[in-house]
Amino acid sequence: MKQDIFQAISDPTRRAILTLIAIQALTPNAMAEKFDMTRQAVSKHIKVLHDCELIKPEHSGREIYYHFNAKKMQEFDHWLAQFRQNWETQFSQLDQLLTTIKEQATK
């Protein structure tokens, strides 16, 4: 079953895994050493991230290294951009209103 990207990034451990492998590819054992959990628990998080294509495996001998899939995250960022522009406009308007109120209060 394909996982939803929002479900994947809603978990703090999965976000931490993404942050780790954005710096360098890691094996599940190397990831487990960074967290206070078993390799099996890390593997469950890896499966969710892999199912929604946020990470990509690369086989090297007997090891599997997981890489951050920047292209998939970029697709997510493009989707968020439409909302970012909206809230930045609203924050800008709020800044202008607060500046006006502050100026009127000092007169």
UniProtKB/TrEMBL annotation:
<dbReference type="InterPro" id="IPR001845">
    <property type="entry name" value="HTH_ArsR_DNA-bd_dom"/>
</dbReference>
<dbReference type="Pfam" id="PF12840">
    <property type="entry name" value="HTH_20"/>
</dbReference>
<feature type="domain" description="HTH arsR-type">
    <location>
        <begin position="1"/>
        <end position="88"/>
    </location>
</feature>
<dbReference type="InterPro" id="IPR036390">
    <property type="entry name" value="WH_DNA-bd_sf"/>
</dbReference>
<dbReference type="GO" id="GO:0003700">
    <property type="term" value="F:DNA-binding transcription factor activity"/>
</dbReference>
<dbReference type="InterPro" id="IPR011991">
    <property type="entry name" value="ArsR-like_HTH"/>
</dbReference>
<dbReference type="GO" id="GO:0003677">
    <property type="term" value="F:DNA binding"/>
</dbReference>
<dbReference type="InterPro" id="IPR036388">
    <property type="entry name" value="WH-like_DNA-bd_sf"/>
</dbReference>
<protein>
    <submittedName>
        <fullName>DNA-binding transcriptional ArsR family regulator</fullName>
    </submittedName>
</protein>
<keyword id="KW-0238">DNA-binding</keyword>
